[in-house]
Design brief:
Blueprint lengths: L5 H9 L2 H9 L2 H16 L13 E2 L3 H7 L15 E6 L4 H14 L2 E6 L2 H11 L7 E4 L2 H9 L3 E2 L4 H6 L12 E13 L23 E2 L6 H14 L1 H14 L8 H9 L5 E5 H8 L4 H9 E4 L10 E9 L11
Parallel strand pairs: 2-3, 2-4, 7-8
Antiparallel strand pairs: 4-10, 5-10, 6-8, 6-9, 6-10
Helix pairs in contact: 1-10, 3-4, 9-10, 12-13
Length: 332
């Protein structure tokens, strides 16, 4: 589903309530519980410290309860005496740091964080090989998680707690990665100029009705690439290519900025509709910048394709590094 046709990316460069139900499964406490279990697994292993280390933390409440419920198995960890765990992450969200900080406060275990672009981190782990200090790899896209798996930098995560908290469709079939959170790619629209009943599908945005009204960030965006990949899977390459051409033809301006910039452009009257991830709307509405709050209040959120294939949803996820010192064994 995440195979991408490069020709279509060049084209773009020129110029569900089902989703909501799935998103609801991945609450803050669910993310905390999953990360807590994996981090606690890692903590006893204690690999060496890494650069750019940030002291981080532990997860509390329901997360700790989730870890204690791991039953029917014994886990033996090879101890090296160090109370540290190393995370290579392509995520850059404030909430992650808070989770790590809570983890450290509750356990006394230091979390060293190395941040970077996902592709660069994968290549780094491949170069480091058996000497890699990485324990966990975290990134924001299902396609990249699969790339990490096929690159041979991950090993299976075996956990009844993880399996019971994360539905099978949001886990790798071979347990090489686990989904942590999800986001839907929705259509944002001007509440002033567009009525929700005018909207229907992603495909409809490529019709003449939206000529000069569509706003979208560059095709170099991973979020747009994954959406296009899903359309290739659902509709075939030929139809997906025609859709990409239609979006380019309907652009209100040359692609620029991130998702929040598309929302701001709607409010500024530069376009009427935009492709955005759901959480950016929440960030606008909860911004400390009063002007951004106003932007969030003036745009509507529409979940497309409810009568057909459903709204496109992608995940963030975590994998256990292949050469991590973490060793997990199950006993019958």
């Amino acid at each position: 589903m995440f195979m991408l046709n490069f020709k279509m990316i060049i084209i773009l460069n020129k110029g569900d309530m089902n989703g909501m139900q799935m998103l609801g499964r991945f609450t803050f406490s669910s993310v905390a519980a999953i990360l807590l279990f994996i981090l606690l697994t890692a903590c006893g292993a204690g690999s060496g410290s890494s650069e750019n280390g940030n002291t981080a933390s532990q997860l509390s409440g329901s997360a700790a309860a989730g870890q204690s419920e791991e039953s029917g198995q014994s886990q033996e960890q090879e101890q090296s005496g160090s109370k540290e765990v190393n995370i290579y992450t392509a995520r850059h969200y404030e909430v992650d740091g808070k989770l790590y900080d809570e983890f450290t406060r509750a356990t006394g275990i230091k979390v060293n964080v190395v941040e970077g672009k996902a592709e660069e981190l994968i290549e780094r782990m491949k170069r480091e090989g058996e000497s890699s200090p990485a324990d966990l790899f975290i990134t924001v896209d299902g396609g990249i998680l699969n790339n990490a798996k096929t690159s041979g930098i991950l090993q299976p995560i075996e956990s009844d707690t993880v399996n019971s908290n994360v539905p099978a469709e949001y886990r790798d079939a071979d347990n090489h990665w686990v989904g942590l959170s999800a986001r839907a790619r929705i259509i944002a629209y001007s509440k002033e100029r567009v009525k929700p009943e005018q909207l229907s599908t992603y495909e409809d945005l490529a019709t003449d009705k939206w000529k000069g009204k569509v706003l979208v960030r560059s095709s170099t965006s991973l979020y747009n690439q994954s959406l296009l990949a899903s359309l290739i899977e659902l509709n075939g390459e030929a139809q997906a290519e025609e859709w990409a051409k239609g979006i380019v033809a309907n652009m209100a301006r040359k692609p620029e900025g991130g998702d929040r910039d598309q929302a701001k452009a709607i409010v500024a009257g530069q376009g009427d509709v935009a492709l955005m991830n759901t959480y950016y709307v929440g960030q606008l509405l909860n911004s400390k910048d009063a002007e951004e709050v106003k932007v969030g209040e003036q745009i509507g959120v529409f979940f497309p394709n409810q009568e057909t294939t459903g709204t496109h949803v992608n995940i963030s996820g975590v994998g256990l590094a292949k050469h991590s010192k973490i060793k997990m064994r199950r006993s019958s």
